[in-house]
Amino acid sequence: MLKTKIKNLSLPNCLFNASGPLCSTEEDLLKLNESNSSIVLSKSSTISNRDGNPKPRYYDHDLGSINSMGLPNLGYQFYLSMSDKITKPYFISVSGMTLLDTITIVQECLKNNDIQGIEINLSCPNIIGKGQLAYDLPKMDEYLSNIFPYINNNKNGKLIGLKLVPYFDIHIYSEVCDILQKYPIDFITCVNSLGNGLIIDYQKEETVIKPKNGMGGIGGKYIKPIALSNVRNFYLEFQKRNLDIDIIGCGGIETGVDVFEHILAGATMVQVGTQLYREGPEVFVRLQNELISILKEKNYNSLSEFRGKLKTIS
Ligand code: RRO
Q1: Whose CA is nearest to atom 8 of ligand 1?
Q2: Angle between helices 99-111 and 137-151 (to 10 degrees)
């Protein structure tokens, strides 16, 4: 009932983990492999391992999370080596500290036959001294124009996607699409955390995380409407241009209703971040069951019956 496809990759359901929580270590990745997640996606990887930003760097309350992890990861070679142990479709998230690093990691991923997808992260908000590339459209275009010559004839059936920032202005979706359509992109993930938010502990009169004066990426309930709007606007723009790019919704997925709304807005799949951190990989069974109940209630037999079919008030 929840079967889906990104391009030619058939998947048993539309749920998987966001690159971020609980996908950094061997233990994390093996737990995801055993879970109901239909893909295993690694933590964003760099050339060398990184400790990340000083702690405390993650805080969560009922409306959502703030993080300034600072790309802690075990280095791309570790994530490549995990491909031997992961039996589900395995995607690597790539976030090189330089263009050359990203090209190197992407090339190494392309050589590995046990990796089905690459998500290039253009949107990390937490690298001290660096902005979020996907907000600077000319720079993003230049970046992609340097990476894709290495990908074009070497995809070996792998899916190539981009993790994007949350956008706000309506006109920007068309400008981003002008860039996306120049490259053989299979999917986009909308959205990364909303960068440089601030959560305050009013009793202590203090920030809740330490790095960057307390500023960090916001996830969870706070960002669901923004994520849905990004999914919807890209979906409409892709339809208009006849672009075959799948959209992976990410932002505020806590219940089956949230998944349903993302699909209704046009997502092919959804990723779970903040709620995965709270609940662990068991979250995927609960979300799957809740989504199945909604489909049954509404008499839908498949996701494609309602994907993208959001109505507006006339
Ligand atoms: O590690 C992080 O601080 C981080 C990354 Br790479 C990202 O893409 N998004 C985020 O919220 N945190």
Answers
A1: 124
A2: 30
Instruction: Over range 47-74, report the average pLDDT.
Output: 98
Residue 263, pLDDT > 90, answer yes
pTM (2 decimals)?
0.98
Distance 293 CA to ligand 1 centre (A): 33
* 285 Cα: distance to centroid of ligand 1 (angstroms): 25
Report, as an integer, the average pLDDT of 241-269: 98
Architecture of domain 4-52+71-195+221-305: Alpha-Beta Barrel (3.20)
pLDDT surpasses 90 at 276? yes
Q: Tokens 């601030």 label which residue?
A: 198
Index of the ligand 1 atom closest to the CA of residue 126: 3
Residue 127: CB atoms within 10 Å: 18
Query: pLDDT at position 212, please?
Result: 97
Which residues pair with residue 13 across a beta bridge?
A: none
* Average pLDDT estimate for 118-139: 96
DSSP β-bridge partners for residue 250: 271
Identify whether 177 is a catalytic site residue.
Answer: no
Indicate if the pLDDT at residue 153 is higher than 90. no
- Joined tokens for residue 146: 């340097």
Distance separating alpha carbons of residues 21 and 179, to the nearest angstrom: 29
* Cβ < 6 A, ligand 1 pocket: 20, 44, 67-71, 95, 121, 123-126, 192-193, 217
Please identify which of the residues 124, 177, 190, 250 carries the catalytic annotation.
124
Mutate to test the pocket of ligand 1, among 23, 43, 67 (most ligand atoms within 8 A of CB): 67
Domain ranges for the chain, please list them: 4-52+71-195+221-305
Q: Is the dihedral of CA 264, 11, 156, 90 positive or negative?
A: positive
Whether the per-residue pLDDT at 154 is higher than 90: the answer is no
User: What gap in Å lies between CA 183 and CA 157, rounded to an integer?
Assistant: 15
Calculate how far, in angstroms, residue 122's C-alpha sits from the geometric centre of ligand 1. 10
Average pLDDT, the chain: 97
> 10 Å Cβ neighbour count for 253?
28
